[in-house]
Amino acid sequence: MVGVSRSTIQIVYEELFSRGYTVTSRRGGTRVSDWTCMTNFTKDDNPQGPVTPELPLLNDAVGHLHSWFRGKEYRNVEIDFSPHEPYLDAHFQKNWRQSFLQASAETDLASWAYGNAYGFVPLREQIQRYLSLERGIHVHIDQIILTSGAQHSIDLIAQALLTEGDTVSVEDPGFPAAWMAMKYRRMNVVPVPVDEYGLQVEHLHPQSKLAFVTPSHQCAVGVIMSEPRRQQLLHMAAQQQFWIVEDDYDSEFRYRGDPLPTLFSQQPQNTLYMMSFSKMVAPGIRISAIIGPTEAIRQLAQVHELTYRHLPIMEQLTLAHFIEHGHFMRHMRRVRNVYRRRHEAMTKAILSTGLGERFTLSGVETGLHMLLEAEDSFDEEAVTIQALEQGIRVYPLSMYCLESNRKGWVLGFAKVDEVAIIEGIYRLAEMLL
């Protein structure tokens, strides 16, 4: 006797049968399966899975991305002039939590089904209204698709509107994630130099299928694209039939006058306008939008539906509530005041220490960073390391360059209070002067 109950024996037989160890028949009863393959491995066999392929393009891109964010392995940094992150406080967190809880309570079960590849309709409606009132962009809701950040937007554009080997022109210095994503999608990425008037349009590659630009506050250098350059770019795009991707990542924070008109508002048939809540609110939200011609956005949505399906619903519900109930605009008014004070503190400190005489200061009219540019022969890397040893993290311009030899430091002020800004700039001046 085995000493177990009948039900236990029955469960064992059912388990053996479900795993294929036994077969049953009405007349023959239960018998062991007739297996012909060897399935048991000993510890000496050491079976291995498929070899992971080498992806040099991926490794290079990720390595550069880590270098761009720069030096997170240093834990003893006192002052971090990060150009990547906005100001956040407990007030924002309280309002976001409130929107999260209320949106969760108010939503119905239908919201938890598979969603729209374009994005949550009420959120797109809120973005549509915001663009119309604040940026002078008047579009239909089907001209808006939501994505999971700027890099996702760029990758989606590459998949939907370009083919492998197409030529893409990018600013140099410029937004590293843009050309890294395009290179990984095997595009022919061509750097175009930037001067005090923005992108040098005459240097665009004649076979370009797309030009990626940051006209309102050039990524890294910080200059504003001049009106003649804007018109030159728009005219060339219309003549040569290529896409303009306009990344408007931080133009909402302008310290002289109102935000500039967008390229999209002047020529919507050729332009894809990118906006992101990473700088306006918080990078952790991971919601961005692409605005463009209806047919182009439809194609982006089809690719999105195939590869990603749709964005997580809870973040979209919360952000829609956050905007609809006024938290977003109140947040924007509050942080604009914070940024204005910090911008003024950094500008005055650079000028009063003499750094503005020894180096070229640019990018002070708009955005959350400015550039302190050195001569091309300057040992940028040595100063960056020396600053880290002094507890200050600065971000070298070379990390934003493809072929350019320009040197300097991209200094963000959004996350640093006025006292720390002044202290950090004075420490830099002691090192550099």
Task: Please provide a brief summary of the model.
This protein has helices spanning 6-18, 56-69, 90-106, 121-135, 150-161, 176-184, 227-240, 263-266, 277-280, 294-307, 313-324, 327-353, 355-358, 380-389, 418-432, and strands spanning 22-25, 29-32, 79-80, 144-147, 167-172, 188-195, 198-199, 208-213, 243-247, 271-276, 288-291, 360-362, 369-374, 392-393, 395-396, 407-412. Helix 4 crosses helix 11 (313-324).
Structural features, described:
The chain is an alpha/beta fold and 433 residues long. It is built from 15 helices and 16 strands. It has helices at 6-18, 56-69, 90-106, 121-135, 150-161, 176-184, 227-240, 263-266, 277-280, 294-307, 313-324, 327-353, 355-358, 380-389, 418-432, and strands at 22-25, 29-32, 79-80, 144-147, 167-172, 188-195, 198-199, 208-213, 243-247, 271-276, 288-291, 360-362, 369-374, 392-393, 395-396, 407-412. Strands 4-11-10-9-8-5-6-7 form an 8-stranded mixed beta sheet, sandwiched between helices. Strand 8 (208-213), helix 7 and strand 9 form a beta-alpha-beta unit. The chain is globular. The mean pLDDT is 88.
Secondary structure topology:
Blueprint: H1 6-18, E1 22-25, E2 29-32, H2 56-69, E3 79-80, H3 90-106, H4 121-135, E4 144-147, H5 150-161, E5 167-172, H6 176-184, E6 188-195, E7 198-199, E8 208-213, H7 227-240, E9 243-247, H8 263-266, E10 271-276, H9 277-280, E11 288-291, H10 294-307, H11 313-324, H12 327-353, H13 355-358, E12 360-362, E13 369-374, H14 380-389, E14 392-393, E15 395-396, E16 407-412, H15 418-432
Parallel strand pairs: 3-14, 5-6, 5-8, 8-9, 9-10
Antiparallel strand pairs: 1-2, 4-11, 6-7, 10-11, 12-13, 13-16, 15-16
Helix pairs in contact: 2-6, 3-11, 4-11, 5-6, 5-10, 12-15
